[in-house]
Amino acid sequence: MKITKICCIGAGYVGGPTMAVIAQKCPHIQVTVVDLNEQRITDWNDPDIDNIPIYEPGLSEIVAEARGRNLFFSTEVEKAIDEAQVIFISVNTPTKTYGKGKGMAADLKYIELCARQIAKVAKQNKIVVEKSTLPVRTAEAIKSILDNTGNGVQFQILSNPEFLAEGTAVTDLLNPDRILIGGDTTSEGEEAIKALVDVYANWVDKEKILTTNVWSSELSKLTANAFLAQRISSINAMSELCEKTGADVNEVARAIGMDSRIGPKFLKASVGFGGSCFQKDILNLVYIAKSYGLNEVADYWEQVIIMNDHQKKRFSSKIVQTLYNTVADKKITFLGWAFKKDTNDTRESAAIYVADDLINEQAKIAVYDPKVSGNKIQSDLNYLETRSIEENKDRVVTFDNAYEACKDAHAIAVLTEWDEFATYDWQRIYDSMHKPAFLFDGRNILDAEKLESIGFIYNGIGS
Ligand code: NAD
Ligand code: UGA
Is the CB of 132 inside a 6 Å radius of any atom of ligand 2? Predict the structure, then answer.
């Protein structure tokens, strides 16, 4: 089967960039990205390309090239499903906030809605691709819904998890380490796998396209995220020990990373990992393990989250302790709010939790982030429901200039590793602050020696 029409349900951080790259690399395929969120679709269609809803280096250029040619953003979900041979499901799968599995399991209500809608609309055979990250064996439930509520047409379910990281989504999509496609071992399953392999083969080496059974593919995605997050929690655990012993975590990371069996990536000690997926996917893994009665497996992976929560708390406690055990009414400036550099995404950002702790201690927080708006910062804090909207407004002020944000501060805390922070005139910032001027580098990106020579009392992670 030759694919000429693709539909993607979900125009978010995965659906948008992934489909933009497929459209750019496969001009012969019409790609329509649909979403229930009208504002999001309006933003994707904004004539001013700088206003598309997701900031990723290189993305606006790709959208500008393909949009209107073979890339379309629309709210007409049913029409797009009807026309497509392949339907990617890229909707969100957040942690459940209610009922059985609350706080642990993935909430599959959006996935089920998609499956029911596809079943209702489809009048010809379709390939349905799980792009969202899903618990192992979800394809079984999707298949059951499609087969039992559909119009008698045939569906093939493929698992094709996405491994892009935000901030580097475009390069990750253009040069993926691998593409993983899981499908049935029947001849129809194999035909569906081949059709999707052929789409990716337009720009990805065939050797990098891995095909497996559906369950291996679904579980590999959760496993990859668990392993990545585990490395961060492992180095963060060592960062606390470094602080007690005089070892330097950057030196330790370098020393172990040169062991080719360990490797140098994902060993950067930090204020804790954030983002929409690591925590959600590990909690989901823990829940799945528990549901099979595998308590030791569940406990093992849960420790990655426990360590990450500890690291965020430890950072805010350190600020309070260092500032003579009180931050009440002191101005503490956050440089960065996004969960990592080069993205405007703030989901589960460590900054939110550190700010919450410090506001509980009655600190005044000033924030500067090059890509995150004041409204977003307020809504992130309000979402925690720790205090009233008015109180958050009173306690947290956002600036669109770092020098203004740092003026009259007692301390600066670096929460995101934006490159521009290293280029600042730190003498000027120091001169404008209360003395002694403290700097807490939650990302170890600044030059400690230089800052100390200016007069800052510098605190990195793990040294
Ligand atoms: P997102 O919240 O940015 O986007 C999901 C979109 O789906 C939203 O715009 C929402 O309105 C839309 N949606 C939900 N239900 C719908 C429905 N029934 N019909 C039409 N639209 C609907 O989420 P995301 O970050 O793109 O993540 C999507 C999935 O991909 C998740 O499972 C996530 O775990 C996985 N993933 C995310 C990343 C990442 O970097 N964000 C990377 C790899 C995998
Ligand atoms: C992560 C994975 O890297 C992707 O492969 C995966 O597709 C994605 O999750 C997903 O499933 O959503 P992402 O969360 O976008 O991508 O970004 P990462 O680069 O993994 O960073 C996650 C967090 O870990 C950030 O807060 C980052 O600052 C932190 N981090 C990362 C560290 O603290 N230290 C490191 O060495 C690396």
Answer: no
Range 155-163 average pLDDT: 98
Distance from the CA of 111 to the center of ligand 1, in angstroms? Answer: 10
User: E strand or H helix at 14, and its extent?
Assistant: none
DSSP class of residue 308 equals H
**C-alpha span between 76 and 54 (Å, rounded):** 21
CA-closest candidate to residue 394, choices 378, 379, 383, 407:
378
Among protein residues, the one whose CA lies closest to atom 10 of ligand 1:
10
- What is the pLDDT, as a whole number, of residue 1? 85
Strand ranges across the sheet with 179-182: 71-74, 30-34, 5-9, 86-89, 126-130, 155-159, 179-182, 209-212
Atom from ligand 1 closest to the CA of residue 277: 34
Going by alpha carbons, the residue nearest to atom 9 of ligand 1 is 12
Angle of helix 374-384 relative to helix 350-360, nearest 10 degrees, comes to: 70
Q: How far apart are CA 463 and CA 456, in angstroms?
A: 16
Residues that are catalytic = 277
Chain centroid to CA 432? 35
**Cα gap 463→298, rounded to integer Å:** 32
As a whole number of angstroms, the distance between CA 417 and CA 445 comes to 6
Instruction: Find out whether the beta carbon of 133 lies less than 6 Å from any atom of ligand 2.
Output: yes
Distance CA 293, CA 329 (A): 49
Ligand 1 atom, smallest distance to 276 CA: 41
CA distance 399 to 369: 8
How far is 303 from 91, CA to CA, in rounded Å? Answer: 28
Distance 355 CA to ligand 1 centre (A): 26
Distance 279 CA to ligand 2 centre (A): 10
Please write the tens of the pLDDT for every residue from 221-235: 999 999 999 999 999
Q: Which atom of ligand 2 is nearest to the CA of 267?
A: 36
SS3 337: coil
Q: In whole angstroms, give the CA distance from residue 69 to residue 243.
A: 56
Of 130, 172, 273, the one to substitute when testing ligand 2's pocket (max ligand atoms within 8 A of C-beta) is 273
Cα 350 to Cα 230: distance, rounded to the nearest angstrom = 16
Q: What is the pLDDT of residues 204-225, one digit of tens each?
A: 999 999 999 999 999 999 999 9
pLDDT in tens, 54-72: 999 999 999 999 999 999 9
Name the closest ligand to CA 348.
2
Confidence of residue 150 (pLDDT cuts 50, 70, 90): confident
